Amino acid sequence: MRQVREVLRLKFVGGVPVRKITRQIGVAASTGRATIRRFQAAGLSWPLPEEMTDAALEAKLFEVTYVTFRNAKGVCYAPSQSGSNLGEYMSRFGRGDAHAQRQCRG
To answer: What is the count of structural domains for the chain?
Structure first.
């Protein structure tokens, strides 16, 4: 979690480009971009509130939301496109919540 805070600090305080940040701390560029995207999607702003712990920050950045679909077998819950790793993967390949709904079918 320390790296997450460092990525955010360098980006929002220092204005350092993501590629340079990720080289400096030794993570993939895609990880740095995803961290910043998650931060913005969570509606957070820098500086973080003093009372925000690493656990609370992690919960905000990696929160998984679910959508509910009804099918012949009852109710199915699937990760939503908004805010989950699966959703990011699915949207990258042109699939969204409709794909999750199809996965819930029988």
So the answer is: 2
Asked if 78 contacts 99 with a C-beta cutoff of 8 angstroms, the reply is no
Shared-domain flag, residues 78 and 92: yes
The domain in which residue 12 lies consists of 2-61
One domain, residues 54 and 9: yes
Q: Tell me the two tokens of residue 45.
A: 């702003």
User: pLDDT tens digits, residue range 32-90?
Assistant: 998 898 898 888 999 999 999 988 898 888 876 666 656 556 666 555 544 444 444 44
Look at the pTM and tell me if it is higher than 0.70: no
Q: How far apart are CA 10 and CA 66, in angstroms?
A: 32
Query: CA 62, CA 24: separation in Å to the nearest integer?
Result: 23
CA–CA gap between residue 70 and residue 9 (Å, rounded): 43
Provide the token pair at 38.
């998650």
Q: 9 and 51 share a domain? A: yes
Are 53 and 19 found together in one domain?
yes
